[in-house]
UniProtKB/TrEMBL annotation:
<dbReference type="InterPro" id="IPR001752">
    <property type="entry name" value="Kinesin_motor_dom"/>
</dbReference>
<dbReference type="GO" id="GO:0008017">
    <property type="term" value="F:microtubule binding"/>
</dbReference>
<feature type="compositionally biased region" description="Acidic residues">
    <location>
        <begin position="670"/>
        <end position="680"/>
    </location>
</feature>
<dbReference type="InterPro" id="IPR027640">
    <property type="entry name" value="Kinesin-like_fam"/>
</dbReference>
<dbReference type="GO" id="GO:0007018">
    <property type="term" value="P:microtubule-based movement"/>
</dbReference>
<comment type="similarity">
    <text>Belongs to the TRAFAC class myosin-kinesin ATPase superfamily. Kinesin family.</text>
</comment>
<dbReference type="InterPro" id="IPR027417">
    <property type="entry name" value="P-loop_NTPase"/>
</dbReference>
<keyword id="KW-0505">Motor protein</keyword>
<feature type="coiled-coil region">
    <location>
        <begin position="434"/>
        <end position="562"/>
    </location>
</feature>
<dbReference type="Pfam" id="PF00225">
    <property type="entry name" value="Kinesin"/>
</dbReference>
<dbReference type="GO" id="GO:0003777">
    <property type="term" value="F:microtubule motor activity"/>
</dbReference>
<feature type="domain" description="Kinesin motor">
    <location>
        <begin position="11"/>
        <end position="356"/>
    </location>
</feature>
<protein>
    <submittedName>
        <fullName>Kinesin-like protein</fullName>
    </submittedName>
</protein>
<keyword id="KW-0175">Coiled coil</keyword>
<feature type="region of interest" description="Disordered">
    <location>
        <begin position="642"/>
        <end position="680"/>
    </location>
</feature>
<dbReference type="InterPro" id="IPR036961">
    <property type="entry name" value="Kinesin_motor_dom_sf"/>
</dbReference>
<dbReference type="GO" id="GO:0005524">
    <property type="term" value="F:ATP binding"/>
</dbReference>
Amino acid sequence: MAQGPSDGGDNVKVIVRCRPLIKKEVRDSEEIIVKTDSAMGSIQVTCPDHHVTNRTNPGEHNIPKQFTFDSVYGIGSKQMDIFTESVRPMIDSVLMGYNSTIFAYGQTGSGKTFTMSGNADVPEERGVIPNTFQYIFDHIAQQSEVTDPEAKKEYLVHASFLEIYNEDIRDLLCEAKDRHKLPLKQHPDKGVFVDGLSHHVVRNEAECEAIMRKGNSARTTAATSMNDVSSRSHSIFQISVESHSSINGQDHYAVGLLNLVDLAGSESQKKTGATGQRLVEANKINLSLTTLGIVIGKLVKGSPHIPYRNSPLTRLLQDSLGGNAKTLMVANVSPAESNYNETYGTLRYANQAKAIKNKPKINEDPKDAMLREMRDQIEMLRKQLEAAKGTATTTQAAAHAIESALSPGQAPVSLPSAVTASMDEAMVHQIKAQQELQAQLEAKSSAAKAAAEQVAEMESQLISMQGQMLNGQALMDETRRKDMKLRQAKAALVDKKRREDLLKRELIKREEEKELYKEEFASMQDELKARKRKNRRLEAQVQSMEDEMTQMRADNDEEKESYLSEFMEIHRELKRRAVVIAHFIPPAELARILQHTNWDSDIQEWYIDHGNLTGAALMAHRPGAQGGGEHPVSQFSRLGLQMDPDNPRHKERNVIGLGLDMPDGREGEGGDDGYDDMDY
């Protein structure tokens, strides 16, 4: 059950971060074209003179383009400041039961991965993701100091890590041999989810960091001209935080899902020098980012149809863009003059995203909460354990009773029939009774041992399940307590500065409004000067809009070029497949196959009815032959293959090779007979 959304929804929060110049840009003496004002939340980007065209005096009209965002971080910004000021409120929402998404966007090499992941081994360089781990488990650790029973909570935290590579979704935490394409599905309660994605219960930040390292090592990266370690896929680290509290004797559950998204960078083929597979990857990256831009544009315009299904990325972010989530966009930009087009494009893109309105709501008492299921399992296990302990106690008591019935120090004996015949009947009866008691004792002892082992196994299972449910006691120690106080003190300072900046921003805004409406002129000359100033401002705005139109045309041309390249590649592939179909599949069979094809909108692929019964599908599950062969081969064929390897009669696949045997020369060249001196 979910609470209603907050009043009027919640706009997407957008922050901008500008990285420093990299070594190559410093060597090339690149000019810094970006100016940031963190207090005012504004950023200016100035077009370099050599980018300006069709102007008589470029320098005179080269007016900076200014944008205002929720927060702006300049070249000297620190990882922890960004987390404390902008990211922490999103994590607090997750701990309350909201869905939240934080995604980094920007051109390749703009610092997205550093912002999101950073360097986990250096505390000052830890990015959003590792700082999030620490903050979540600090919050859970504080539960050990809560005294009010109704305010005390239990938590269950689990994580998953996926990438979208060439529009295919893959689990980064499974083994490489099992890393295949995963389908997207939609559920009325869960929304869009990845079917088959692994989820791992985590108990502390160390386990989270181990998962992140494992996933990052499996993520697809490659070197380009702009970045030595360029991400070739979009990655999403998901953290689910489930909480349980008891209020007035009633159980209450809440589930918050956090998506930490590191988008691959938008690329220009001219700058990255991508070819071959890198170019294919770049086209796919740009295609998904373009779809994301289209979705954002449609949401801003209030279009009735939003094309979420056009890309796996937009489907996964469906709730984050106009849905049930709080969203923070981190726009990463480069300050170098050579990246003006990309920086300006990123800022325009981010400025557009500010207008998106989400409708977040707390996910209360969901039916599929793992924490609820685990608590039920623990309760059932406790009852089974009590019953097993009772059975074990009864069995042990029976064994002791039988043992005491036996004569101390006596052991049952097995006497020969000749001896028992000469013995007194009473004595024989006593010996047989003793043997029966000993057999019962062994059976009861064995049962008692099995019961004790079962109890021990159930206790171990119970401890393991209880260990996955976190109440803060195992996390809190003196070191964490001191570190938490230090982090909280730093956060308080950041909050104070943030409030001061907001007050300053509001004060300046009001002063500007006051000046706008308070134009008293002492003379006609003053009025003329004021009107000239206003005209210059309007001219600057017109020039800025013309520049923006020029930039938009350039961006559209670049997108068209990218689409054309993608189209030509797809067209060539279609032609090749058409050639194969035309030469190897009879028209009647092709028509029959097409008749049984259907489109699956969930996975965005065609499938064939009962495709699991086709020859190719059955062949994939057919066991191989001895010796590693693909098909069973008779002894006769093995011998024949050794004697004549080129004879198709003895091959596993009885198909003649399709390669053409081209002659080494041409007829009419060579000797008098018209033939070369070749061996035929």
